[in-house]
Here is the input.
Amino acid sequence: MCCRARVCQNLWPKLRIVANVAEENRTVVDIYVEYQGDLHCRAQHGPSGAVLVTDAPVDNHGLGASFSATDLVATGLGTCIATVLGILAKKRDYRLEGMRVHVKKTMTPAPPRRIAELAVEITLPPGATASVSDGRAELERVAEECPVRLSLLDAIAVPMHFEWQRA
Here is the structure.
């Protein structure tokens, strides 16, 4: 065994400890997907056991019987925005119950098939306007910086429009 190999062997337990610490410091969630045939999938959320099913869209050889994979990206964006705004609302004592998020997914017209745009319209309830008039910019910034939005490629346009309803 060469000197270098011995050094690696001696470091391996230490590297393993560092790797375990790194894993402990990040959130890892297991999603289990089973292909059931005929373009249908069953996905299970590891921590909760919750199940959802997907189907290919009609315009891509499927029946459109459930969410498609790209529909779930759009859904993830919308629910992420609502969630981070809800977290901020709790911290600032804003009233956002009844807030609605509409995500309109547009696919590219030509190959390669991918999401071209996820247009987002966020409608805040009448009670929110009065209670957050000074916090509008913060709420809009937080929505723009939700983890799903920050994880999307720049090739996907994500225009956001905020509608502040009045009482």
